[in-house]
Predict the structure.
Amino acid sequence: MLIDPFKRKISYVRVSVTDRCDFRCSYCMSEKMKFLPKEEILTLEELKRLCDVFVELGVKKLRITGGEPLIRKDIMQLFDGLGKKLGKGLEELTLTTNGSQLERYAKDLFNSGVKRINISLDTLDKNKFKSITKTGNFDKVMKGIYAAKQAGMKIKINTVAFKNVNDNEILNLVKWCGENSFALTFIEIMPMGKMGKKRSDQYMPLPEVRNIIESKYKISEDPLRTGGPARYVHCHETNEKIGFITPLTHNFCEMCNRVRIACTGEMYMCLGQEDKVDLKIPLRKSESNDLLKETLYEAILRKPKGHDFEIDREKEEKFVPRHMNVTGG
Ligand code: SAM
Ligand code: SF4
């Protein structure tokens, strides 16, 4: 078992399998993003071995992310391998994706054991989609979302709330998700990676999103807690959950049950802090897992109590100097 100094059990690991992506979302990457050389990225075998060790040490849920996880070559090998751990320690295998490759992979993912999936979609407007994602293809993503639905997966749409960009689409997104039986989670923009624009110009506090929803829909608190930042409400008219991820307006760390592995094998004990441990070293140094386990036990003792994200117009912008695509969302 991996237990941190604040007695929080680590039962959830997010694993980024690539820093590359076929989109260039304005809040996530700069358009001139430089990607890491291949040798610095864990191989699929190393990723599998690392995940197996986490499961052995009590991790129940694995989320594969990126970059865009589904553009990694032969990625189904990893899903197929990890799927075999389901029911043998692992309780859930899932992923976060931009949806661009789902038409191709949805069925295979479902067959490998992925029953729930998070798909990121910030707008239902094709032109706006292009301006947010730069290189994304809206029609392809829509086909991907419906392919995942068709394959039988339970879908959650993740939407980053942006001031003056999608704040006029909140109600429409709630309606569309309700019609399709999708859960919906809004995310506050986080200060990850230096960008051209000031984030305080984009930042929309989620209490404002909630007010917009309440202008049309009846919602009530939902007790669901996943150990993460999301707080949920139940929307009566659509009969779906709506989540709010509010790293800026609320602190969510006291129940944190997770760590993140960057595609380089660096483990971040907290998304909002810089401290990390390079798991690539024990993975490559020895074929036995003893050194890796020892490194993990030591690293967990360094998990901090919480993050200190801040977006304040009046102050100089403080940001975590990593882009989200490296650590994985
Ligand atoms: N490419 C996949 C996708 O977009 O779903 C997986 C990786 S992406 C980094 C994971 C999530 O992080 C997405 O939902 C994205 O909207 C979110 N994200 C990226 N940068 C962010 C930021 N600065 N603040 C808040 N959320 C961010
Ligand atoms: Fe790619 Fe996801 Fe980042 Fe968008 S949010 S650029 S889809 S990694």
